[in-house]
Amino acid sequence: MSLSLRLTGTGGAQLVPAFGCECVACQRARLNPGYRRRPCSAEVRYNNAVTLLDAGLPDLMDHHPAGSFRQFLLTHYHMDHVQGLFPLRWGVGDKIPVYGPPDEEGCDDLFRHPGILDFSHTVEPFVVFELQGMQVTPLPLTHSKLTFGYLLESAHSRVAWLSDTAGLPEKTLKFLLNNHPQVMIIDCSHEPRPQTPRNHCDLNTVIALNEIIRCPRVVLTHISHQFDEWLMDNVLPEGFEAGFDGMEIVVE
Fold it and tell me: Among 112, 131, 147, 180, which is most exposed with the fewest C-beta within 10 angstroms?
């Protein structure tokens, strides 16, 4: 049985095009919607179940009506990863499980007024749990708020989701080295820089990480308009590709 992901957003909080920006990447995105980037997120499909990985799309309810998915799997509680939950929580019907890190603050008043959302499903680093037969391992990331990536596994498929992060903690790096993901979808917000930025990876950092992990397919996400502009004039290394909104990734 295949494990598949659809990238519903591949941008950061700034989005592409960025408000007021007239760089060539932003101009291109205004002219051609195929180059737009919405907040970083994905749909995960396995065993006839849909899991929404992060909830940053502000119009999330328009794309995912009631009954079309089983649960949310959150990386962290920054607004651009949870803003779609704010109106959805006031819906009617069955409770919707929300899996995510044990962040006591959460985001704004989501925990105090959860509505139909069930935030009791907190997860712990490297403690495996199961969603409709898919194994999920939370992986600590390096970010300004408590953030987890996830290794998603079936019997024959292994996908790593690593956003938002600036480099990787040593334990997470060793875990990925030992567990051999077939596809790695990773934060690469910035064009190559001399040093890793504070909260998000640049291309040099991702290349250096994969020299250790040796994943055969690396899909870049959380892409900024500056990195898009760089990509218009430069070629990625073999095995690396820039994700795009609507991209389908199937691992057999």
Answer: 112
